[in-house]
Specification:
The chain has 47 residues and is mainly alpha-helical. The chain is 62% helix and 11% strand. It has a domain of 30 residues.
């Protein structure tokens, strides 16, 4: 049960990260200025 919960949370987090990273990549590709890229309310990862 605990392992399943952890697996679901990690998978959900990865899906959200990939979704947001897709926004980042498209902005870069289209020439939109990206000041920073962060996951959730965490520290800046790129930008």
């Amino acid at each position: 049960m605990i392992l399943s919960t952890v697996a679901v949370l990690l998978t959900f987090g990865m899906v959200i990260f990939l979704h947001e990273f897709g926004h980042f990549l498209m902005c870069k590709k289209l020439g939109v200025r990206v000041e920073r890229f962060a996951f959730g309310f965490g520290p800046q990862l790129f930008g």
